[in-house]
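batch job 7 of whatever, protein = Aminoglycoside phosphotransferase domain-containing protein
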Amino acid sequence: MLEAHLSPSYVAKLRAQLSSQKENNEASLRNIWLLSPSVHKAFREGHVSVRLASQPFGDSESKCEVDDEIQNAWYTLETIFPDEISGLLLGDGTALESMARFKFSTPNPKTLPTPAFFLFEIHRRFASALHLFYIDDKVARGWPQPPRDWLAFNIPTLRQTFYQLWLCLPLNMRLQCYLILKEIGKWLYGTTLALCVHRLPFGLMLKEFVRSQQNESNSLRLVERYTSIPAPRVVDVGEYGGTTYLVMTRLRGQMLDEVLHLMSYAERDLLADDLGSYAMQLRKIPNDTEFLFCNSLGGPVVDHRIPDGSGGPFNSESDFNSYLTSHLGCLPAEVVGEENLRQDHHSYFTHSDFHCTNLLVDCGRLSGIIDWECAGHMSEYWDFTKAMYSARRDPILESIFRRAFRHRYEPELNVERKLWFYPLFGV
């Protein structure tokens, strides 16, 4: 069984190593490696592993036959995905953020040589299994109750009354208070993934804008008016010091990419069905602008998928398609073929960024959709192909998005994928 897991050559080398340690006490010191307490615990439990820095990620092929040639090589210490362990400190006190490059050092190469690399290769194979057992235990325990935010307004009527009274104060005074709360939030909650987004006390979020200042707040108001989609509710918006600030309610849940591996097949199917239902609700939002493809206010489309990250507005699908390849200096038909281009898609309101970091999950259910900066009136296939674009060939995410959109728009996805092989769009 051990040979099946490691290979016969690995087992033979391991036996030779253990035999030499029995015959010579000094040999037992040859593979000592000093680690900080937190990294040592994670290493023993299979949450981190070591590989050659030149070794491709995920490559488990043996390098033991060249041990003597790699003693001065660079190595990579990395946390194992998914459910990567956090809070690990290296020997110098710096935090281990996913991975760190290093070289082995020893005060006496003769009596204390650096560890044999093949042992790390063996450890990597066991670490993967140990980490999966850790995840399996988490799944078996079920979804934990989210920590309670004692500073949040959990009584809707009280919260609504306070917000109405709060908005009676001058705008500049309110915005200065938000900036103070921003600093308090950093101290209480830390930073978020996006530098422009900050968690505030009282169940609020603050977002700073440089471009598309009014589109997200207007989109959120449209979503609140016409749908039952769990999206942030706009509390306040204004400009101060040359920056536009949007204050909105905070939604419960974790980002999908943080919990996808913990979800059962039934929960993934339910998430896909909920997402599909919400995507259909978005189509009920009317287009009161004079353009076919535009943001919620009738202005330019803001989307990292298109050239320069912004373009339009457009009054025909032909104009929009031409813009998608404008940076290539050619027409879309030259890239994907005239027979593959449709010009008769409906225009619907779309979120335009169903990235897994914008989908929140609470206790296995889709609990919120955030980041509506790119929302607007787009072609009917856009939400699906943009979601597949962000999935980056992840089979689980792709199956969720295909189920959500009922396996439609595959021809449009094939056209989009031809474009993805060309230089990256936007920023």
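notes: Confidence is low (pLDDT under 50) at residues 60-69.
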